Amino acid sequence: MKLKTKIKIIGAIALFSVLSARTLVAQVGKPFIHDPSTIVECEGKYYTFGTGGGGLISEDGWTWNGGAVRPGGGAAPDAIKIGDRYLIVYGATGGGLAGAHNGRILTMWNKTLDPKSPDFKYSEAVVVTSSDGVEDNDAIDPGLLLDPTDGRLWLSYGTYFGFIRLVELDPKTGMRVEGNKPLNIAIDCEATDLMYQDGWYYLLGTHGTCCDGPNSTYNIVVGRSRKVTGPYLDNMGRGMLKGGGKMVLAAGERLIGPGHFGRIVVGDGVQKMSCHYEADLDRSGSSVLGIRPLLWKNGWPVAGDNFKEGTYEIESERRGYALELAVDFVRMPGGMRFHRNNDEPVKPVPSQELADVAKTWPSGNIGVRIGDYMFRPHQKWTITAVPDAGGYPGGPYYKIVIAGTDRALAATADAEVITVPSFTGAPEQLWRIDQFTDGTYRIMPKIVPNSNEHLALVSAGDSTPTLSEYDANSDNSKWNFKAH
Amino acid sequence: MKIKRKAFLPAVGLVILAGLGLQGRSATSGGKINSTANSDTTRSIAPYFTAATTKKKTPDAEGFIQRWLLLEPINKPTRTNVIFTDSYLRKAFTTEYFPGQFTVTPKDGEKVKVGEQELTWHALETANFNVKLFRFAYGLRKQTYGVLFWAVTIVNSPREMKNVRMAVGSNSGSMWWLNGKEAVILSGDRRMVMDDCTSARLTLNKGLNIIRGAVINGPGMSDFCVRFVDEKGEPVKDLTISCK
């Protein structure tokens, strides 16, 4: 076959073997915030509140801008949906600002977080806990947990001035449970948050130095306990009351000082975490919102890396085969060299390149299958974010094309996958990539034509991909991106 | 969030209000913890320290040393702890503030002159695994921020112990010596974490060994914890601790 013009050779041959990678690490728009609350979804939009009042709103979880409204000022709020209402908690003070540690933490309700809604109205804020400025605690930086096992509502709070404490709130009123006494559960932390997973309670805290721009040493650590009241121990068995904590996320990718953890359960087997970075070196060193995968390894949460653009093998977790074009296999020159002369000079053999095989490919749509990986051109996929195509919590939509070409992976109306000769930006050619909590990936088209279903790329057989509802407990739904 | 580095916080005489409580205490790092916040309504070192006695004192169940001679804080104005680099600390901690600083074993009630300050040594036993220097200073109505503390204790070992490590945590920077030799330094803007830094392998002499430590802090809540651990990281507990 002749080389068709629709197969664009856009890079040098070397491009196929030298894999470039880039990460889109922070959110787009104007995601400037400090001490963000756990991200909450309300009527199809995402909200997070920050220090000083106000916060960010996003239509899709990827592009964030100001506009959220939170009265009361103060610092470091948290938010949670309980029933059909939203409970907002915040510290009225700033944790040692002006030398005082007299802190107060208040809660208030709202039926909606959309400030344009006629239902948008905060209840009067009520104090649920405080510190007197002398005791070993400063009542700021609240974090909420609605215990999924029994419906009880817990609040952790505090900073480096003494202990992190735990109190119980009434989930119906948002007020302190009568007679409840605060418990000391950690030291050395700020910005604590609690979460429950698989029989364990996890206490997240931020260690290190806050509020020093690119020199902030903020980092997020965790301990766990079988009881919400503790004791919370780290992976070494060291109590968080003795400063223990296992690292969840530190600086990296030109993002410095992660703090103020919040968990987002996206779906079965897919979790994300929100935080702020004290300094984004690509955004004037400003404090920005971050969202990244939350992985679980041996019973411990750890931040995953946001997806890196690049050229990859897309490997099925089911069999370990690779997603590939359904084209004729083109043999490389040479055969078995079992009997070689030891005096013969040893020399490298060039890899098969796109130009060696592209002319054998059909020009129109080409099907997709899964085969054993041979690092051949029909198995190498270049994945890049598509500007202005929107996104989802923690990521933009991507195009997935055969490396060196514009041939793009696409969903079909009958819920199968093919490649089309050229990427057009059509929504069925846009792909959402989320990391499962086990580190493998879920790959979903933005839409399936003529369908409202949210389907994912799955293995129907070892060698056959299709689109179907994902199952977080099945390796059929899981993929790996391997850079060779 | 706590914006502390840009806001140096001088010691402030605070009116103590009756009310919410203070501290939880843990018996072990992994065991049962009595962590209900207790009340504290008086400005005193009493909830945190008692006077050292001459009774036999061993490390606690986790090996933490709880009997110390503590010098009232030296005034060392420091707006931020981010300046505590290794070089800064070595200079700050090798400066002689009072005669015999690196050689003399102080006595309870003994006074030293540091510039215009007259400071007293206190032989104390901490009620916790750690030594809450902030509460030591606060209870004695001394400055709590912008301070440099000296601590000394005597470790009596029943035999020569090789290949042990001194394991230290401190808020904020600190430096520690065993028998006059530098053992470990903790630099940077640190909070106190047990076993944060350990010395290289060292030897505890049979008989008396002297530990000296210095802790510096700007706007942080000073404290430290010290224990010895063996090659397996297990605490060394068959020691006795005294102040002379």
Write a short abstract of this structure.
The complex is a heterodimer of chains A (484) and B (244). Chain A has 484 residues and is mainly β.
Structural descriptors:
heterodimer; A: 484 residues; Trefoil (Acidic Fibroblast Growth Factor, subunit A); Tachylectin-2, Chain A; 5-stranded antiparallel sheet; 5-stranded mixed sheet; 2 helices; 42% strand; elongated; disordered N terminus; B: mainly beta; Jelly Rolls; 10-stranded antiparallel sheet; 7% helix
What does this structure look like?
The complex is a heterodimer of chains A (484) and B (244). Chain A has 484 residues and is mainly beta. Chain A has two domains: 14-23 and 309-482, Trefoil (Trefoil (Acidic Fibroblast Growth Factor, subunit A)), CATH 2.80.10.50; 28-306, Tachylectin-2, Chain A, CATH 2.115.10.20. Chain A has helices at 14-17, 354-357; strands at residues 22-23, 28-29, 40-42, 45-49, 55-58, 63-68, 75-82, 85-91, 104-110, 126-130, 143-146, 153-157, 164-169, 183-186, 190-197, 200-207, 219-225, 246-249, 255-267, 270-280, 286-297, 300-303, 308-316, 322-325, 366-371, 381-385, 391-392, 395-396, 398-402, 408-411, 417-420, 431-435, 441-445, 456-461, 464-468, 479-482. In chain A, the strands form ten sheets. In chain A, strands 1, 23, 26, 29 and 36 form a five-stranded antiparallel sheet that branches. In chain A, strand 19 and strand 20 (270-280) form a beta hairpin. The longest helix of chain A has 4 residues, at 14-17. Chain A starts with 13 loop residues before the first helix and ends with a strand. Chain B has 244 residues and is mostly beta strands. Chain B has one domain (25-242): Jelly Rolls (Sandwich). Chain B is 7% helix and 36% strand. Chain B is built from two helices and 16 strands. In chain B, strands 3, 4, 5, 6, 7, 8, 10, 11, 14 and 16 form a ten-stranded antiparallel sheet that branches. The longest helix of chain B is centred in the middle third of the chain and has 9 residues, at 86-94. The model of chain B is unreliable at 4-34 (pLDDT under 50). The interface between A and B is large, with 59 and 49 residues.
